Amino acid sequence: MSLIIYLVGFAFVIGGIAWALAVAGVGARYVTITAVILVGIAILTGVTRTRNRD
Fold first, then answer.
1. Main-chain dihedrals φ then ψ at residue 50, nearest 5 degrees
2. Of 11, 20, 35, 42, which is least packed with CB atoms within 10 Å of its CB?
3. Binning pLDDT at 50, 70 and 90, where does residue 38 land?
4. How far apart are CA 51 and CA 34, in angstroms?
């Protein structure tokens, strides 16, 4: 459950960054590439921070 909350929060951050890039006039291709990279980072950090410790 905490992973989902973490990813939802990161989705808001990604959305804000994508919106800022679009308003700044950056091309849609670069906005998409940035969003995909940030989604990958979000998944990696979310899993490592919320996994159960042995």
1. -110, 0
2. 20
3. very high
4. 26
**Amino acid code (one letter) for 5:** I
Tokens 């950090």, residue located: 45
Neighbours of 37 (CB within 10 A): 11
Residue written as token pair 């909350």: 5
How many residues comprise the chain?
54
What single string gives the DSSP state of each residue in 13-27? HHHHHHHHHHHTT--
d(C-alpha 38, C-alpha 30), whole Å: 12
Q: What Å distances lie between residue 39 and 26, 34, 53, 54, CA to CA? A: 19, 9, 24, 27
